[in-house]
Amino acid sequence: MATDHPTIRPLSASDATAYASLRLLAIDEAPESFLSTREEEEKRSIDEIVARIAATANQVVFGAFAAGTLVAVAGLRRYPLRPVQQKGFLWGLFVVQTHRRNGIARRLIVAATEHARAMGLTHIALNTGAANASAIALYRSAGFEAVEEDPCDDDFADDAEREVQMVLRLV
């Protein structure tokens, strides 16, 4: 059963195994939302996973813990190139089915937004599937706005293959 107020905190090396399991669950549930496959993720070493979730000056992965169990994650990464280093990218937001619709995703977005401001970022971008109406609504309610559609979108047969880029301006 979902708890009302899971703890939200940056992940650490000790969370790597739980993160790897949650990511596999996310890929199983929505493979179209990921660039990697389950098979690719299963091959990642624990050291690779630790590096992926390690908080640095340019990235952080937040986790939501209910009764000590990792039930949701969201990552924030600064764009590495100098001309766009003031911008960040929100990635990998996922909440376990039994904990959805309890405000956890919104709390992860708030944590990422506060962290982005502390990093001195001016924008946070994200991509989500065009057919994922609930995600788009969540991001809009958090202040994200859809960016003009890319002209190459006409090449896709249906919305299931399209993505929407959204941006939150922090200043």
UniProtKB/TrEMBL annotation:
Transmembrane segments: none annotated. PROSITE patterns: GNAT. It comes from Paraburkholderia bengalensis. The keyword Transferase applies. This is GNAT family N-acetyltransferase. Keywords: Acyltransferase, Transferase. It comes from the Bacteria. InterPro entries: Acyl_CoA_acyltransferase, Bact_Acetyltransf, GNAT_dom. Residues 6-171 form the N-acetyltransferase domain.
